[in-house]
Automatic annotation (TrEMBL):
Family from the record: Belongs to the SDO1/SBDS family.
Domain Ribosome maturation protein SDO1/SBDS central: 113-212
Source species, domain of life: Eukaryota
Source species taxonomy: Eukaryota, Fungi, Dikarya, Ascomycota, Pezizomycotina
Region: Disordered, residue numbers: 146-178
InterPro entries linked: Ribosome_mat_SBDS_CS, Ribosome_mat_SBDS_N_sf, Sdo1/SBDS, Sdo1/SBDS-like, SDO1/SBDS_C, SDO1/SBDS_central, Sdo1/SBDS_central_sf, SDO1/SBDS_N
Keywords: Cytoplasm, Nucleus, Ribosome biogenesis
Residue ranges occupied by any Ribosome maturation protein SDO1/SBDS N-terminal domain in the UniProt entry: 16-103
Name under which the protein is recorded: Shwachman-Bodian-Diamond syndrome protein
Subunit-level organization: Associates with the 60S ribosomal subunit.
Record-annotated Ribosome maturation protein SDO1/SBDS C-terminal domain positions: 243-303
Location of the protein in the cell: Cytoplasm; Nucleus
Tagged with keyword Nucleus: yes
Biased composition (Low complexity): 155-167
Length: 310
């Protein structure tokens, strides 16, 4: 197999292969895979190993066609471990090696996906309309620039080359310790980065944004609606006055609903359709489960309600 690889007509070039590399003991082992197939394998999209591997063998150096000696494999992975199992270990645990062009393309794909997710989940709180992906991109770019600039200022101050803010300037420019956005990376999933981006946008408000609300249908037996909530608590209003927390199951449910779309009683069931902040969904579900003893339920009608321009 080594001789075949070294033949000019069959020589593997780094531009045509994705390498997965794993250091085990004092040796570095490589396998040759088809582009984009490694991530699909790890995500469970691709399940056929033959579609992932270009050559079913373990190498010390793929580009030179240098296969790993059996002695090295036995010493690193164990004497009785089959080659197929060694390949799977490298494939699942190894570091994926990509070239600069491929890395840039991957970063661009993740960036586009992150922006798309964020744009679908956030709205202008005044109009409830979604922003374009371009506006979301610019807003995140502003946060990224501020984060990098802040890091530079901090570094300059620490080295004595900058001037720390004092007095009114220090109070006028508080630094947010959490929800700092520094840009997209390829080492995290687009979904997790989109969540980080949304938190940063909401916390820093480079443009007015809020989470798009969920549209829910909540149903509950009328026999439990007027039951008093266990251990009622008091809540403190913005003006400092103490206000009694909702006293009944119905009051508590409606307390989670920001805007009621419809409300009706049908037979022995009460139903309300309305809009709820995504962050309140779990608390509402938990409340229904604990207080109604199975006689209340919530159904998601729309994960993210927005208004789009025609």
């Amino acid at each position: 197999m080594s001789r075949q690889i070294n033949q000019p007509s069959n020589q593997i070039k780094l531009t045509n292969v994705s390498l997965v590399r794993l250091k085990k003991g004092k040796k570095r082992f490589e396998i040759a895979c088809y582009k984009n197939k490694v991530l699909e394998w790890r995500q469970g999209i691709e399940t056929d190993l033959d579609e992932v591997l270009q050559i079913p063998n373990v190498f010390l150096n793929v580009s030179k066609g240098q296969t790993a000696p059996k002695e090295d494999l036995a010493k690193a992975f164990g004497k009785d471990k089959p080659v197929d199992d060694i390949i799977l270990e490298i494939l699942n645990k190894g570091e994926l090696q990509v070239g600069e062009k491929e890395r840039a393309a991957q970063l661009d794909r993740v960036h586009t996906e992150v922006i798309s997710i964020v744009a679908s989940k956030l709205v202008d709180p005044r109009t409830k309309r979604v922003y374009t992906t371009g506006m979301i991109d610019k807003a995140l770019d502003m946060l990224s620039s501020q984060a990098h600039q802040g890091a530079g200022d901090k570094s300059a101050t620490a080295s004595g080359t900058g001037t720390p803010a004092t007095g009114e300037d220090a109070e006028a420019k508080p630094r947010a310790k959490e929800h700092v956005w520094t840009g997209v990376v390829t080492t995290k999933s687009a979904k997790s980065q989109a969540l980080e981006a949304m938190k940063a946008l909401i916390a820093n408000q480079p443009i007015p944004v809020s989470r798009a609300r969920m549209r829910l249908r909540i149903t509950c037996s009328t026999t439990v609606l007027q039951q008093a909530i266990k251990a009622p608590k008091t809540t403190e209003a913005a003006d400092g006055e103490q206000k009694a927390a909702p006293g009944t199951v119905k009051d508590k449910i409606l307390g989670y609903v920001e805007q009621v779309e419809s409300q009706d009683v049908m037979g022995s069931e009460w139903e309300v359709v309305g809009f709820v902040e995504p962050g309140a969904f779990k608390a509402l579900s938990d409340f229904l489960g604990s207080e109604t003893r199975g006689q209340g339920r919530v159904e998601v009608l729309d994960m993210a309600v927005t208004h789009e321009d025609d």
